[in-house]
Fold:
Amino acid sequence: MRVTVIDYKAGNLTSVIKTLRHLGAEPIVSDGDLSLVESAERIVLPGVGHFAATERLDNTGLTAAIKAAIARGIPFLGICVGMQWLYAGSSEAPDQPGLGAFPESCTRFPDGFEKVPHVGWNSLEVQPHSRLLANIHAGEFVYFTHSFHGPVTADTAAITHYIEPFAAAIERGNVMGVQFHPEKSGETGLKILTNFLNWKEQ
Amino acid sequence: MLTKRIIACLDVHAGRVVKGVQFVDLIDAGDPATQAARHAREGADEIVLLDITATHEGRATLLDTVSRTAKALFVPFCVGGGIRSARDAEQVFEAGADKVSINSAALADPSLIGAIGASFGSQAVVVAIDARRDPNAADPVRDAQVYVQGGRRPIGRTVVEWAREAEDRGAGEILLTSMDSDGTRAGFDCELTAAVSEAVGIPVIASGGAGTVAHFADVFGRGKAHAALAASIFHFGVSTSRSLKEELAKSGVPVRLPC
Structure:
């Protein structure tokens, strides 16, 4: 299974690539090579750091290519900032639009309650419609490190509680995103990535 | 619910895990990759690998060790020791680390914190602080002295103001070692840990002094730590992170279980 991993210079891809390889996939990195998106069987968009970095996706033509791939039914997984990019935008960089696959926007955790960023292992409340999180049981833990998050909506695949309930995962058809890092979430994370690799159109 | 993290710490010298010199019968504790995988399997929430000698000629060994250790590790992996520039950090990330821990180099050039964070995100930058209470200061705890070079030399900064600066410059977490407590097995310095945790908005990892399960419960409670480093406790009656966490859960500490 060829997996096109998008590199937009927002952090380190080593862990994601290593984990995909461990699961038997063949990760291929595109840092602007649109043909690797056009021929993709799976697309993973990792990302840490600042939402503004996603501007590079627009400037390199990757945004349009990814949009077309999603329209063709190619399974897409955004991780962390890669999930946030699926929304209309984020208050972290108000002038930088996201893909808009989901109409809401990401916001920062409110100050004055707990530490922000939210760092560490927290549990998932998996929603029954989720295929990405099939076989993930209530209370399984995954690793988070982020300050911004998406709201809970009908598209939310899992809810996590920190200061307030937020979307730990989002899913509609072949478009999926996880706020946590499955590549750093032990056996639970490996199961989720395996679900993504095995995803088939229904 | 966000859980408290137990972080297994491996001290590495010349590519081998070593134990503190006071434990004479435990000098060589094996291969870092094997040991890290074992700790992950036994329930550690995170792995820290510290290159305790970090000589220049040790760089290639470190990168090779990081690469081998990262290969089959699917929990967060932090590497520290000898990282003096953004380029050094980049090599460690490329070898498979998720976070770097910087100490003396950040004090020598605080802009290094932001330089690494700009490329790899602030979550990837852990600022390690070695501090000793200052009995002559107005507030011996908040004004604890910060030491460099593995705790050999005070640098003339106090712990709370340096932790705040590190946060302002983009550190993602603080790894705080109490030099007063380190090696005593008499408990973490909860007052010191709480003083730093209350002063910053980022998570604080407590280190130094763990001898019993109760010490961990104490530093998560009174010490307001978000994570704690576990090293020598595994040689004194607590066999694994899992058993440590099972005991902590009985005291009401939220931990990742089953794991």
Summary: The longest strand of chain B covers residues 5-13. The mean pLDDT of chain B is 91. Chain B touches chain A through 34 residues (CB under 8 Å). Chain B has one domain: 5-250.
